[in-house]
Every structure is written in structure tokens, then in C-alpha cells.
Write a structure and sequence with these properties.
By secondary structure, this protein is α/β, with parallel strands linked by helices. Strand 14, helix 9 and strand 15 form a beta-alpha-beta unit. The relative contact order is 0.14. The chain has helices at about 90, 95-100, 105-115, 130-145, 160-170, 180-190, 190-205, 225-240, 265-275, 290, and strands at about 5-10, 10-15, 20-25, 35, 40-45, 50, 50-55, 70-75, 100-105, 120-125, 150-155, 170-175, 210-215, 245-250, 280-285, 295, 300-305, 310-315, 315, 320, 345.
Length: about 350
């Protein structure tokens, strides 16, 4: 059985996310993977995955968390949002048995990640909120081996589930998909206030390192006014050190009526974010080393240079700028990893 549900007049309400699906035995929730039985709600994808792959940590994307290191990544199926522009739609919109070809226990995943030399495990490809129990159990197995855990999520989760979820994670990249109610309601079938609440909670009330990503979609969420409001909220509510990744859209799934995001749009938004006081703003899904680099917020020195997913420069000492000694927000080791841009599909052997 899952951990978060309440009996309601012979049915069961799922308390994991703001949808609060109320299900009769045999029915599935919006996410498709949480199903009511006669005794409660079960997670039908526990222990099953759409595949495992070693990725660069920068692909999550995370710029201030163990740069250059490999991360063992996996997802399951389904999602609790309905984004019409989903760029992993073949996984997030898959029915339970369509894509779940691999099986692995949390302990087996942690053991294989350690064997492969990974510094962390990422719950990604589809939103780990909907397989929270599997992700949390895996995170606990990883901690026993000295490895960290990363969630790539839209942040659509309710307390107390979010307490347990973010308590198990060492880092998270949270999608802030837009900054208008209309965008979330029409293009994601979700609500913005709950996402903002999750982000503020994760940044201000947990020890989980958080970075944000906004996919800029032409004509939908890329206006100067919206970027100004969003980045002002980030600076005022979360502080200037939370990294923001502004990434380029390409037509996919059901939103194919517009083109790719121009580089000029990314750079204009980058400048707005910087003008509003954010220290660490990055562009993604484009090759632009100047806005992929990390600079010291105190002296402006480039402390981490990047070309795509490859770390090309390292001027950190003890997590501080090598030029002026100011600390850099994030989680760093003495040296960067050297994984580069490789992608390595793997199979998890049974323990």
C-alpha cells in the first residue's frame, strides 16, 4: 500500500498531490499509476522502471551540485500533470505496462550506482512525486552507501508527503513552468500556487539543494513582463543564490504550433533575471558557454566554465572562489568530476 491516502465513504482519497483523486476499488488516479484496491491505494510501478542510464549531473540540470559527476538516472511511467508540451511524453504519458521493462529493488539500484562510480541517483524522466515511496526507499538505500539523491520534479505535492519526499532528497531541480495561473491551468492542468508553495518550502525549510528550471515557450510564458515578475519573486522569496535555468523549447507532444525558442529570447530573459538580482542564471538546450558558466557573485570571476555538459574550467577551493575567497552556494567537492557528456544505458542486476 502507498503511504498517503484517506478512506472516504467506501472509497479512498489519494493525499499525495493537490489533485486528491478519490477512487473506488479498481480505479486509477490522474497519474495512472496509483490505483485503489479493496484495502487502500497501491503504487503499481513500485520496483519497475522505464530504464536506467548514467548521465552527467548537468543534464538534470544542476549546475551547483557535484559538477562533472555521473548520476544514475531512472524513471517509471505516468505523471500527475498533463503538460501539453511534455518533452518526455513517451514516458510520462505511458500506461503502466507500455514502457516498464526493467525491474530493480532500491538496494540493487544503490549497489549498482556505487559499482559504476556514481556520486548520486536521480529520479527523473517522469515526475518522481508519483512514485514517491519507491524514490524515498531508494534514497534511503543510497544514503546507507554514502551516495546522494536527486529529484527532478514539477513540485506538485502536498504536505505531509512533501516533508518525507524532500527530506529524503539531497538536491532537486524543480520546474517552474510559468508564472501565470492561466498557463498552468490550460497547458498543465494544474495550479500555480501549490507549485510556488512547494518551491518556497523546499528552499527555505529543508536542507535539500534546489535549482529551478523554466522552459521558455514562444508566445506562452516568455514575455518580458512575466519573466520580470517571476524572477523578482524568486529573488524576494527564495533569495538571490537559487540558480535558475532558462531553457529552450522545441515543438513536441501536443504543442507543435510554434517554433523553437530563439537564443535572443533566452538572453533577454537572462538579462532580466540578472537585473532583478539573481546571482546564478543559466541558459539550456542551447550551446552558449558565456551563459553556461558559473561566476562568483562577489568578484565576477568565472569559477566553473562549461561547454555543454563538459566542465572546462575549475577555480574553486573548498567551495569558495579561487580569486577572492567568497563562498559559492551549492554542494561541491574539491575537484570536479570528469564524466563529461557521456550517456551510458545500464541494466540493474538482481541482488
Amino acid at each position: 500500500m502507498t503511504r498517503w491516502w484517506t478512506p472516504v465513504d467506501g472509497r479512498f482519497r489519494c493525499d499525495l498531490c493537490p489533485r486528491e483523486c478519490t477512487l473506488s476499488p479498481g480505479q486509477r488516479g490522474f497519474c495512472f499509476v496509483r490505483q485503489a484496491t479493496d484495502d487502500g491505494i497501491e503504487l503499481t510501478t513500485y520496483g519497475r522502471s522505464s530504464g536506467f542510464c548514467v548521465d552527467p549531473i548537468e543534464k538534470k540540470p544542476l549546475a551547483h551540485f557535484l559538477p562533472g559527476t555521473p548520476v544514475l538516472s531512472f524513471g517509471t511511467a505516468g505523471c500527475n500533470l498533463g503538460c501539453r508540451f511534455c518533452q518526455n511524453w513517451d514516458i510520462s504519458k505511458a500506461r503502466r505496462d507500455d514502457r516498464l521493462q526493467d525491474t530493480a529493488t532500491p538496494e540493487a539500484i544503490a549497489a549498482e550506482a556505487e559499482r559504476l562510480g556514481c556520486r548520486s541517483v536521480a529520479y527523473t524522466y517522469n515526475d518522481p512525486v508519483i512514485f514517491a515511496e519507491y524514490a524515498i526507499d531508494t534514497a534511503e538505500a543510497c544514503r546507507e552507501r554514502g551516495m546522494r539523491s536527486v529529484a527532478v520534479t514539477a513540485g506538485y505535492i502536498r504536505p505531509p508527503a512533501r516533508d518525507a519526499f524532500f527530506g529524503a532528497m539531497d538536491a532537486a531541480n524543480i520546474d517552474l513552468k510559468a508564472f501565470t495561473d492561466g498557463f498552468y491551468e490550460k497547458l498543465c492542468f494544474a495550479r500555480l500556487p501549490e507549485v510556488l508553495e512547494t518551491i518556497a518550502y523546499a528552499v527555505n525549510e529543508t536542507s535539500c539543494w534546489v535549482e529551478l528550471t523554466t522552459l521558455l515557450i514562444p508566445g506562452a510564458n516568455d514575455s518580458e513582463a512575466e519573466i520580470d515578475r517571476m524572477t523578482s519573486w524568486i529573488a524576494d522569496t527564495l533569495g538571490p543564490d537559487v540558480p535558475l535555468h532558462l531553457t529552450a523549447f522545441h515543438p513536441d507532444f501536443k504543442l507543435d504550433d510554434r517554433g523553437r525558442t530563439p537564443l535572443d529570447t533566452l538572453l533577454r530573459s537572462w538579462r532580466i533575471a540578472k537585473a532583478n538580482g539573481l546571482h546564478h542564471v543559466y541558459t539550456g538546450n542551447v550551446r552558449h558557454p558565456a551563459t553556461a558558466a558559473t561566476r562568483c557573485a562577489s568578484c565576477g570571476e568565472e569559477v566553473i566554465g562549461r561547454d555543454g555538459y563538459v566542465v572546462t574550467r575549475w577555480n574553486l577551493a573548498g567551495g569558495a572562489c579561487g580569486a577572492c575567497g567568497a563562498p559559492l552556494a551549492g554542494v561541491f567537492e574539491d575537484r570536479p568530476g570528469s564524466w563529461g557528456s557521456r550517456r551510458l544505458p545500464v541494466r540493474i542486476p538482481a541482488l
